Each structure stands twice: as C-alpha cells, then as structure tokens.
Amino acid sequence: MTFCGLDFGTSNSSVGIFKDSNIDMVTFDEGKKLLRSAIFLDDDEKEIILGRQAIARYMEGGEGRLMTSIKSVLGSSLMDEKTRIFNEMKPFSDILGYFIRHLKHRAESFAGYEIDSVVLGRPVRFHDTDDRIDAQAEQTLKDIAIKEGFKHIEFQYEPVAAALAYEKISTKEEIALVVDIGGGTSDFTIINIVPNNTGASTRILSTSGVHIGGTDFDRLLNYHNVMPYFGLHSTVNAVNGTAINVSNIYYNDVCTWHKINSLYSKQTVADIKSTFAFSNDKKLVSRFISLVEKQEGHRLLQDVESAKIELSSSEHMLLDLDFIEDNFKVDLTKDSFEQLISKDLNTIKEYLQSLVNDAQLKMNDINVVFFTGGSSQIHKIRQDVMSLFPQAKMVEGDSFGSVGFGLTLDAARKFS
Q1: Which of 10, 43, 85, 365 is the most buried (most CB within 10 A)?
Q2: Cα separation of 211 and 69, whole Å?
Q3: 17 contacts 110 by C-beta, under 8 angstroms
Q4: 270 contact partners, CB below 8 Å, separation of at least 6
C-alpha cells in the first residue's frame, strides 16, 4: 500500500509522501512545496493550467477563465451547478477533479511510484450549521478522490493534522492549542501532548472550526475600502427622478473569488451598463464598468490580497490601480483593516472560549498556542488570540506546510 497526505486548501495545496523513512513534501512550480489552488482555462490552447502558472497566464492577458479558491464550492450551492469548460457544460466536481488529479500525478512523479491511498485534510466544518451539507461536501470530495484513482481514502481534520505536526517537535508534556487560520476557514484543536518515552498517549481534547478565513478578509478590505472608488454607495436616478443607492450585488460578486467570473458574460456586462446608465457619479461607476469589461476582477482581488499581507506589518500602503486608470491609487491603512476584521476576530475568540470549555479546561491551562495557516500571520489575529491566553507561549509553525506534514504523518500511521 502506497500513500500520501493531501492538503487541498482554499488558497494553497500541498502533498507529502513517505520516502526513505522520512516525510518529503512534493515540489511544484519553481521548486515550491505549495501549489496555488487556481485553475486557468486557456481558450486559445484549450488547455487547463494550474497553480501560479494559471494566475501568471491570466495576468499576461490570456484569453480564458481564471478560477481561484476552488475549494470554496464544497458545501456551497455551486456544487449542484454546472459551468462551461471549453464549450461544454461540466459539474464543478470535474473542476475539483482536475486539480486533485494533478496533485496525485505530481506526487507519483516525485515519488517514482503509483500512490493508491490518501489521507485528505478537511476543515472541521464545510458548513457552519448544516450537518447534511457538511457530510455531503466530504462525500463529494471522497467521490472525486476515488474517480481520480485513489483506492483507500481517509479524512483528518486540518487542525488535528497541524497538531500532529506540532507533536513531532514538542519535547515535553504540555497542553497546546492549535490555531489554523487558512484561506477559507479557521480551525482549532486542543491537544494534550505526552512524550513518547512515558508510555502514555497524546490525546485530542477538543476540536472546532468556523467559516472565517483569509478570503473573507480580502473581501471585506476590497468591498469597504476599495469599491467606494468604483461607485459603491453612489446613487442612480430612478424613473421618477428620485436618487436611490446603487445596488451592491455586483460589488459583492467582484469581491468574492468564486463569483467574479459570473460578471464577465456579455449579458451581465450589458446589465451593469444599464444599471449604471443613470448614475450620478459617472467617473466612479465607469471604473467598475472598465473593471468587468477588461475582466480584471481577479487581478484586483489578487492585489487586495497582497495589500492585506502588507498591512499585517505596515501602517499603510498605496494600492496601485493603474491598470484601471492612470495614476489611480487607493490609500489603505492598518487601523481601518483591523477595524474591518474585528467582528470576525470576536467570533474566533468566542469559538476559542467554547473550545476550552468543551475540553473542560480553563484558559490558563493552555501552555502553548501553535499558529499555522497563512492568515495566522496577521498581527491583529495573533494579538487577539494571545490576549485570551496570556500565560501561554506562542509558537509559529510552518504557516503553509504544517497541515500537509501532519496529514502525511497520519497517513503513515493509518496505512503502514
């Protein structure tokens, strides 16, 4: 039985194999151990391009369709829909299948043998409240894995996988809180780590998660701090001459990774132009029309994501939007960004307090807080989390690799 651990992430994905009694993380674009979870459907070449190359091809102006954060469709209504791929209607599960297939084939090429077994990571909740949708999302992912050639499939919660990675480097008994904040979800685990030489076993004490992640922070920053420069909150004249607020539907869609493509159809562009025809601020809405006509929504959100990362360590930054209009720049500040995400951070803190209660612990029982996931690098998140556990030591894991490493450890235990 040959196996791998596969972390299919909202923003980035990774695969680990067991080679020469050691875990080896598979390399992808430019030797990196992560593959950006993005697909570009190249209309000219009728080719499917993945990862950073997909985004690069789109940014170069290639004719086609960019799809990012593709994991987000799991647990959403989009899983029941079809989308056009090279003039043929295909279910979204096929798109996820292209990506899983590439990860599997790359792992097999890297390992030098066929892989038939996998431990797949999953968030604690694909859907925050509906157990049926949550179970359906896991089953969909399992069906995709089977279709792409895996014969033996197990699942592991992503924060538990990260906890297994932390256990590997821990040298003493301690109670650790794992905070895994990725692109789509925030997941948490409390683990009682016991060194191997004691004869006792490490135990998972409690686990929880919520649908809050980096793509939500991108959306908030884009919607509230950038879209007003594209006409959000402006007015249009109704038939009776009354000024009414412009609809926010299109603005919401352009701020959401997996909805951006819906704005690019000829009919939608025509509808947008019709909606804005009687705008009282032609300059602002003309920017939005230009954005969708040029199909630059993904580029804008990519730049906003980069701005978010910069604001984690800088007090302000200038978002350069020259690709829309000459000398068009938006000043973004760290204070404003932190205010935008404060509601989500309060929700995360509430989940952490409940997590500790579920483990029948007190806040000061936590010895270590282990941060992983790309969005855990945001200073305000770490600050707010650590305020709940002032006695605990903060440990920074591999922000993008801890889950994949832990899944591979779990695969070795389950399939060896």
Answers
A1: 10
A2: 14
A3: yes
A4: none
pLDDT-derived band at 200 (thresholds 50, 70, 90) equals low
- What's the Rg (C-alpha) of the chain? 22
Most confident of 235-239, 350-354, 395-399: 350-354
Q: What is the pLDDT of residues 114-150, one digit of tens each?
A: 999 999 999 999 988 889 999 999 999 999 999 999 9
Taking the C-alpha atoms of residue 14 and residue 69, their distance in angstroms, rounded to an integer, is 14
Helix (H, G, I), strand (E, B) or coil at 237: strand
Structure token pair of residue 264: 């690019």
Question: Does the fold of domain 172-212+344-395 match that of domain 3-158+404-415?
Answer: yes
How far apart are alpha carbons 383 and 360 in whole angstroms? Answer: 24
Phi-psi region of 377 (alpha: psi -120 to 50; beta: other; left: phi over 0): alpha
Give CA–CA dist 69/74, Å, rounded.
10
Question: How many residues does this entry show for the chain?
Answer: 416
Question: How far is the C-alpha of 17 from the C-alpha of 410, rounded, in Å?
Answer: 11
Judge: domain 3-158+404-415, CATH 3.30.420.40.
yes
Question: What is residue 232's DSSP assignment?
Answer: T
Q: Which amino acid, one-letter code, is at 37?
A: S
DSSP string, 254-276: HTSGGGGGGG-SHHHHHHHHHHT
CATH architecture of 172-212+344-395: 2-Layer Sandwich (3.30)
- Residue 79: pLDDT over 80: no
pLDDT for residue 170: 86
Q: Which residues, including other chains, have CB under 8 Å from residue 86's CB and lie 6 or more apart?
A: 41, 43, 46
Which positions ≥6 away from 68 have C-beta within 8 Å? Answer: 36, 37, 38, 39, 55, 257, 258, 298
How far is the C-alpha of 150 from the C-alpha of 4, rounded, in Å? Answer: 10
Q: Which two tokens stand for residue 342?
A: 């404060």
Q: Using alpha carbons, select from 131, 308, 120, 126 the residue that is nearest to residue 210.
A: 126
How distant, in Å, are the alpha carbons of 49, 55, 158, 328 from that of 31? 17, 17, 24, 35
The two tokens of residue 106 are 């790359």
Calculate the average pLDDT of the chain: 92
DSSP H/E element including 169? helix 158-169
Q: Categorise residue 360: left if φ over 0, alpha if ψ from -120 to 50, beta otherwise.
A: left
Question: Could you give the angle at the alpha carbon of 65 between the alpha carbons of 106 and 5, nearest 5°?
Answer: 25
